[in-house]
Amino acid sequence: MRPTSLRYLSVLIGFSLLLGTGSARAADAPFVVTLPTVVDTMLKMGQVGASDFLIDLGSGDGRIVIAAAKQHGARGYGVELDPNLVLTARREAQRQGVADRVMFEAENLFNIDIGKASIITLYIGESVNMRLRPALLKLKPSTRIVSHDFDLGNWMPDEKMTISVPNKPYGPPRSDIMLWVVPADFSGTWTWTLPVAGADASHEARFEQAFQKLEGSGRVAARQAAIGSPQIRGDSIRFVMGADVAGKAAWREFEGRISGDSITGTSALLADGGKAILKDTSVPWRATRTARGKWVTDSPPATFEPGAR
After folding, report:
1. Are 262 and 288 in contact (CB under 8 A)?
2. Residue 259 β-bridge partners
3. pTM for this entry
């Protein structure tokens, strides 16, 4: 990553000193250099590309933003409290020929608009991550969040990778890289009509959602139906649904993309106990949300300590 300002990472460095003094000044906090292997892994896990706008919160000397621009063609923005590091990042961007694609500012990260990002990178500690979490959950579905070493509490990552970092300047010689894809709100009751046993049949699915995890139950042609393996990835959903219709177990796989209170996609019949898709059975599928549900995020209040970043 970059030499990252750890002003608020007292859990890592100088914690005993902070306990002794009772408070910490931002200017006294140390920097930690993260090696290029971590930068590369974060950008690859986030699938950064030329169409992306990356925001790095706590950007240090700017190396993540610069690497995203130089290696992947992305545009980027870095926010960092230390104005000297901001100047360093600007000079380095100029030296590496990407100054026209990146921008760095000395600013408190809670004061900026992160809504324009398609990907956000973090290396700022658990407590600050948790204060950021409510804002991150409000980002446009499918926005990617990549964090080095620090998680987002009980919002579990979609992917996690541990890599060896032999020369890491603190802690064990390894790093955890985690990816979250901001999920859409699929909670509530969805209805649609599809043929079953040769006749159109009403379908209903009721989903409860916690972060990107779904649990559901349903009905097909007024009969109780089971829902299995629901998966969310940003604004996309996939699940299987089955019921006993006309004395036979009828299972379908549904996949689609949400837009407001509509899901548009395809559905296909399943065989072998709902494990295999039957050839040439895929048909268009459109579902409508008829009742909103509760999307549980268990987020703490979005209140920040003065000077937090």
Report:
1. yes
2. 262
3. 0.85
